[in-house]
Design brief:
The chain is of the alpha+beta class. The chain is built from 7 helices and 14 strands. The relative contact order is 0.07. The N terminus is likely disordered.
């Protein structure tokens, strides 16, 4: 028991050491194509966001100025050994340095994380950022997480489905059965393939977006196999608080796309039928014209006239069906494309295609 009591303080030492944040220094960044004022502002953004990355403690600029001045006087440029030589006396264990460039509204940040003990480059990122300087904070934060804490560069996905017992898979891996206990954490920002299967319902399959340090809340209607709601909430340590709610997004059911293609297939079949009917009608019409020229037209041609009228009716009906099916199919497919929340083009609350063939002013077929 006494031996165990003596071991307890020793066992706590590594845990305490591991909990200590790693001291990091932001070294001089080399500007390319940037005015001094813009360089200073962008470097200040980097300094502010680097100081917020968990697990790191950023050294204050005042405590590193003397070492930076000595480094500049040495004139050794970008040589890593020289940088490490002048940065080690700051007491930092890690160093962030690199190049920032600008061309108009486009910025490029090329940063590297250096271990000062071994003077080796641990990680490097190159990010292209676009937008006003005041809108770059989020992008810079994401870039620094990729560099200094890639394991924390993540978002979450919360799935809301009214049905119980549905199997949920993400990127081909089953994550649970509805209702899920909470958001799916630790997801790499970007698009992920979400699949939901419920016996008796159509399989839902959609690419859903995951954002850095945000919870994507997606609402799915399994009856129509479609997304009916999408919003983003900011991740916090204790809970997720809504910061921005998107418009309600209703994606048309996959059945709509299937109906669109089916309508186009019907239109194609009707065109073929109309062509055959027109050809047969013209053949009978030529027979009657030939008989009339030879003064051989008589009562016995009544059957030919009757059959010609039937073929004419069939042609007109086929052309009408083809026109209506083509308009309907085109409208359904166009709506399915425009109202897809994954393509980022249009967000809305639904689409009801209205088709009227009479208003189109379309006249196809023949008269016998």
């Amino acid at each position: 028991m006494t031996r165990l009591a003596k071991l307890i303080p020793v066992l706590w030492i590594p845990a305490a050491v591991a909990a200590e944040p790693v001291q990091v220094v932001l070294w001089q960044l080399r500007p390319l194509g940037m005015e001094p004022d813009a360089t200073s502002r962008l470097e200040q953004m980097l300094r502010s966001e680097l100081g917020k990355v968990p697990g790191y403690k950023l050294l204050e600029k005042a405590s590193t100025e003397a070492h930076l001045e000595a480094f500049e006087k040495a004139g050794c440029g970008t040589e890593l050994e020289c940088i490490c030589h002048y940065a080690r006396p700051t007491g930092a264990r890690k160093l962030v340095t690199g190049v920032i460039g600008a061309l108009g509204r486009d910025f490029t940040v090329d940063l590297k994380l250096v271990d000062l003990d071994s003077c080796r480059e641990e990680r490097r990122i190159n990010e292209a950022l676009t937008g006003r300087e005041d809108l770059l904070i989020g992008a810079i934060r994401a870039a620094l997480y990729k560099l200094a804490a890639p394991g924390l560069y993540a978002g979450a996905l919360k799935i809301e489905v009214a049905a119980k017992g549905a199997r949920v898979s993400l990127d081909g891996r089953q994550v649970g059965i509805t209702p899920l206990g909470g958001p799916i954490q630790g997801l790499r920002p970007g698009r992920h393939r979400l699949e939901i299967e419920l016996p008796g319902a159509s399989k839902f399959s959609e690419l859903v977006p995951v954002r850095f340090q945000q919870v994507t809340v997606i609402k799915v209607d399994l009856v129509r196999s479609t997304v009916v709601g999408l919003e983003y909430k900011k991740q916090t340590e204790r809970k997720s608080t809504a910061v921005r709610e998107e418009k309600l997004v209703t994606r048309m059911s996959p059945r709509v796309a299937a109906a669109g293609w089916s309508s186009l297939a019907v239109a194609a079949a009707a065109l073929v039928s109309g062509g055959i009917c027109t050809w047969r009608m013209k053949a009978l019409e030529n027979q009657l014209e030939s008989a009339a020229k030879n003064n051989q037209l008589g009562p016995y041609h009544q059957d030919t006239i009757t059959r010609g009228r039937r073929w004419a009716f069939g042609a007109n009906l086929s052309w009408g069906v083809a026109a209506a099916a083509a308009v309907l199919g085109g409208a359904l497919l166009l709506g399915d494309v425009l109202f897809d929340p994954g393509n980022g083009r249009v967000e809305g609350v639904g689409l009801v295609p209205m088709v009227g063939t009479a208003a189109a002013g379309l006249s196809l077929g023949g008269e016998f």
